[in-house]
Structure formats: structure tokens, C-alpha cells
Specification:
single chain, about 120 residues, 3 helices
Length: about 120
């Protein structure tokens, strides 16, 4: 997925620089492009500690200040297939995690709380 995204960016950059028809198309259709970033997603880098599997799996990541956090795996994300096929490849590696905060109801605490759900994982 990452490689295809890079290829698409390169093609778009080349078309914008060298193809008058493409530039004209973009100018005429600017209103239809969604150019806003998704502010609900955040990125963090740190050392991959572990993958805990179960009904609901999560990874543990140690950030630069030494704090360890959980990032929950609730949906497919870029990097998930690699994590499934070779989780040991990630151990003790520096990784980047893109995540979104999701509010859930914790029945044990009888309150709502936010958890971090992985949307992308990559080795730095």
C-alpha cells in the first residue's frame, strides 16, 4: 500500500509539472477535491515492545520519554499484514504508529474512556 501511494504521488507530481491538460483538469475541479487533513488521526514514534493477541489485540509501544502505551488493533491498517506474517520483525524496532482516539464504554469502570486505535504501522 505504501509503495502504491508513493507511485501515485510521483505520477501526480510529474503530471502536474508536465501535462497542461492535467493542470487544467485540477484547476476546473478544485472544489471536488478533499484537501483537508484528517485532524482526528495522530502519529507517534517509539520502540515496539510487544504484540498481545486475543479477542482484541493490541501492540505496546514505548515512547521517547519511556512511557509505554497500548494501541488497539480493531480494523485492517497499512502494516497489519506484515505484523500478522512476521510479528518478531517488529520487536525492539523503532516504529511509527498512526492512530485515532475512540471513545468506548468501559463496563467494569462504568464510564466512557478513550483508547488509541491503530490506523497505520511502519518500521522507521
Amino acid at each position: 500500500d505504501e509503495d502504491m501511494e508513493k507511485i501515485g504521488e510521483n505520477i501526480g507530481r510529474d503530471a502536474a509539472l508536465n501535462c497542461p491538460a492535467f493542470r487544467e483538469y485540477v484547476v476546473k475541479n478544485l472544489d471536488s477535491f478533499d484537501t483537508e487533513e484528517d485532524d482526528s488521526q495522530k502519529t507517534i514514534s517509539g520502540k515496539f515492545v510487544s504484540l498481545q493477541t486475543g479477542q482484541f489485540s493490541y501492540i505496546s509501544l514505548k515512547n521517547k520519554s519511556g512511557k509505554e502505551d497500548k494501541y488497539w488493533w480493531f480494523e485492517h491498517f497499512p502494516g497489519a499484514d506484515e505484523l500478522i506474517s512476521n510479528p518478531d520483525k517488529f520487536k525492539s524496532k523503532d516504529v511509527s504508529v498512526k492512530y485515532k482516539e475512540v471513545e468506548i464504554y468501559d463496563a467494569l469502570l462504568k464510564e466512557y474512556r478513550k483508547i488509541k486505535v491503530i490506523t497505520k504501522l511502519a518500521i522507521d
